[in-house]
Amino acid sequence: MSNLPVVAIIGRPNVGKSTLFNRLVGKKLALVDDRPGVTRDRREGDASLVGLEFRVIDTAGYEDEDAASLPGRMRAQTEAAVAQADVALFMIDARVGLVPLDEEIARWLRGSKTPVILVANKAEGKAGESGILESLSLGFGDPVALSAEHGEGLVELFEALLPHIEHEDDGEAPVDENVDEDGYNPDAPLKLAIIGRPNAGKSTLINRMLGEERLITGPEAGITRDSIAVDWTWQDPDGERRAVRLIDTAGMRKRANVQDKLEKLSVADALHAIDFAEVVVLLLDATRGLESQDLRIADAALQEGRALIVAINKWDVAENASSLFNGIRTALEDGLSQIKGMPVLTVSAATGKGIDTLLKVAFETREAWSRRIGTGELNRWFEKAIEANPPPAPGGKRIKLRYLTQAKTRPPGFVLFGTRVDQLPTSYQRYLINGIRRDLGFGAVPVRLTLRAPKNPFDR
């Protein structure tokens, strides 16, 4: 968990909060669109502003709606962000000027204990001058005039933030000695992404893990839009504390059904989250079973070389549980034939049952995904594999396989050297890959095999 000071950005919808968030973190992490209400869950990132380091939170647009409605649940997330922040940036739209909702937010902020800095966004040119003057009536002093889109006014924002979040830094970065030659550190946070179709219970599962309503949930499909990363410490059944970075993603529907631009952005963000993750959990809905879209989502994770676990949620309300489980496992074996023996687990986000098992398997899977086998041990296994099942001789000409080496980890990649390897059948390559998984401790993680032939000095 980060010990940096926390800055929350708040304001009504469409004033530019996510644009400023992206500007401060230096990446386009938050989805941005012209329409209001894009951001729903609060999103966090490490920010840097003229050398000032802090943790910034992007929040949903504050709306005065019933607490049980989706905007009301979004407002509760914003209120939680302000409560944990060291300082809040209250953003208004300088071009539009003050609206009644700005004044409602100001009244609420005056009752909170968190210091507030007023920020007038979209203040480039003369169009924002009247809005800046109007904002003085809110009672938070002179506003910081800036343009989040163009990067203007950031020095003034730095000067306003400095008294609230200045912190001492000893200048010494921690040295972690538990990192191997591939950069793998078993004590580093496990990057665990939860993916699946809409309404499978991804956000509910993460909330159950955290023990708080950190993510917005509800009966509406497609609530989650941004991929939200949350740092958490899991205490395993043995009492050991292990760091996890949980990544919630937007539900992914069939491509033909995705027409809205914002949903396309959400799906692209979910696919980017898969790239960032180490282990991916495909969450299925026990009340709906396995569908072809689930296989497509799983294949996307495997194509990126990520370790995959399948978890069946809502198991507490599943009917014909035994036949359902066996049917899903068989369908996975048929639909994802490139991976045999993939972990299939049952969980309940509503009760928390199965979550410890899921996390235990996730850590074990990451360890296998990061495993490196020495060349000596690898080739002793390789010689036995060839002896047990020699490669074929297409056209009567023998394929000679010389040796095998592991080129990389995360995912594990192997290079096979030999002559005429371009004619090695796919079935024999699959035989070697399945043997590597089964005999060398790689389990069901994706293993990649590259074929190399020595260069012929007479070949021009």
TrEMBL record:
<dbReference type="InterPro" id="IPR031166">
    <property type="entry name" value="G_ENGA"/>
</dbReference>
<dbReference type="Pfam" id="PF01926">
    <property type="entry name" value="MMR_HSR1"/>
</dbReference>
<feature type="domain" description="EngA-type G">
    <location>
        <begin position="190"/>
        <end position="370"/>
    </location>
</feature>
<dbReference type="InterPro" id="IPR005225">
    <property type="entry name" value="Small_GTP-bd"/>
</dbReference>
<keyword id="KW-0342">GTP-binding</keyword>
<keyword id="KW-0378">Hydrolase</keyword>
<dbReference type="InterPro" id="IPR027417">
    <property type="entry name" value="P-loop_NTPase"/>
</dbReference>
<comment type="similarity">
    <text>Belongs to the TRAFAC class TrmE-Era-EngA-EngB-Septin-like GTPase superfamily. EngA (Der) GTPase family.</text>
</comment>
<feature type="binding site">
    <location>
        <begin position="58"/>
        <end position="62"/>
    </location>
    <ligand>
        <name>GTP 1</name>
    </ligand>
</feature>
<feature type="binding site">
    <location>
        <begin position="196"/>
        <end position="203"/>
    </location>
    <ligand>
        <name>GTP 2</name>
    </ligand>
</feature>
<comment type="subunit">
    <text>Associates with the 50S ribosomal subunit.</text>
</comment>
<dbReference type="Pfam" id="PF14714">
    <property type="entry name" value="KH_dom-like"/>
</dbReference>
<feature type="binding site">
    <location>
        <begin position="248"/>
        <end position="252"/>
    </location>
    <ligand>
        <name>GTP 2</name>
    </ligand>
</feature>
<protein>
    <recommendedName>
        <fullName>GTPase Der</fullName>
    </recommendedName>
</protein>
<comment type="function">
    <text>GTPase that plays an essential role in the late steps of ribosome biogenesis.</text>
</comment>
<feature type="binding site">
    <location>
        <begin position="121"/>
        <end position="124"/>
    </location>
    <ligand>
        <name>GTP 1</name>
    </ligand>
</feature>
<dbReference type="InterPro" id="IPR006073">
    <property type="entry name" value="GTP-bd"/>
</dbReference>
<keyword id="KW-0690">Ribosome biogenesis</keyword>
<keyword id="KW-0677">Repeat</keyword>
<feature type="binding site">
    <location>
        <begin position="11"/>
        <end position="18"/>
    </location>
    <ligand>
        <name>GTP 1</name>
    </ligand>
</feature>
<dbReference type="InterPro" id="IPR032859">
    <property type="entry name" value="KH_dom-like"/>
</dbReference>
<dbReference type="GO" id="GO:0016787">
    <property type="term" value="F:hydrolase activity"/>
</dbReference>
<feature type="domain" description="EngA-type G">
    <location>
        <begin position="5"/>
        <end position="169"/>
    </location>
</feature>
<feature type="binding site">
    <location>
        <begin position="313"/>
        <end position="316"/>
    </location>
    <ligand>
        <name>GTP 2</name>
    </ligand>
</feature>
<keyword id="KW-0547">Nucleotide-binding</keyword>
<dbReference type="InterPro" id="IPR016484">
    <property type="entry name" value="GTPase_Der"/>
</dbReference>
<dbReference type="InterPro" id="IPR015946">
    <property type="entry name" value="KH_dom-like_a/b"/>
</dbReference>
